[in-house]
């Protein structure tokens, strides 16, 4: 059974940094693209970033480009999201997503981790 467990969320001041981790178990991690999504209160879940299984390709939402960095360590079955220069509008629950290539938002989801950025 596939399982994704996020960690690393918390409360940080604007301009600060956090690093989220997503630990995956199951057989599909090494062959899956991995993504991060977020959902703010009262809003729909939105795409943040994704990385290919080989880590050779990454894609970001325009709102986080240049501030967030996605990476993965296949030996540890873990994907990371380094978030720098955080803004209050980055406040959301962040979800890890294991998805087929080219289909972020499908596949498996973690339970989410709360990120709160104070002004």
Give an account of the 3D structure:
This protein is mostly beta strands and 119 residues long. The protein has no helices and eleven strands. The strands form two sheets. Strands 2, 4, 5, 6, 9, 10 and 11 form a seven-stranded mixed β-sheet that branches. The mean pLDDT is 94.
Distance between the termini: 40 Å
The coarse overall form would be: globular
Largest sheet descriptor: 7 strands, mixed
Mean pLDDT: 94
Enumerate how many helices there are, as a single number: 0
- Helix proportion of residues, in percent? under 10%
Q: What fraction strand?
A: over 45%
**Number of DSSP strand runs:** 11
Order of helices and strands: EEEEEEEEEEE
Contiguous low-pLDDT stretches (5 residues minimum) are: none
Rg over C-alpha atoms, rounded to the nearest angstrom:
13 Å
How would you describe this structure in keywords?
51% strand; globular; mainly beta; 119 residues; 0% helix; seven-stranded mixed sheet; four-stranded antiparallel sheet
Summarize the structure.
This protein has about 120 residues and is an all-beta fold. Helix content is about 0%, strand content about 50%. A hairpin with an 8-residue loop joins strand 9 and strand 10.
Q: Helices and strands in order, then pairings?
A:
Layout: E1 3-7, E2 10-13, E3 18-25, E4 33-39, E5 46-51, E6 58-60, E7 68-73, E8 78-83, E9 92-99, E10 108-109, E11 113-118
Parallel strand pairs: 2-11
Antiparallel strand pairs: 1-3, 3-8, 4-5, 4-9, 5-6, 7-8, 9-10, 9-11
């Amino acid at each position: 059974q596939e399982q994704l467990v996020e960690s690393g969320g918390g409360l940080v001041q604007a301009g600060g940094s956090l690093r989220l981790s997503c630990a995956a178990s199951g057989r599909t991690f090494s062959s899956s693209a991995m993504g991060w999504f977020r959902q703010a209160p009262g809003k729909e879940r939105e795409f943040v970033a994704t990385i290919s299984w080989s880590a050779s390709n990454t894609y970001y939402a325009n709102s986080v480009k240049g501030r967030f960095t996605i990476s993965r360590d296949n030996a540890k079955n873990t994907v990371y999201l380094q978030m720098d220069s955080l803004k209050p509008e980055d406040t959301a629950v962040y979800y890890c997503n294991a998805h087929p290539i080219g289909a972020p938002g499908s596949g498996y989801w973690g339970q989410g981790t709360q990120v709160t950025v104070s002004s």
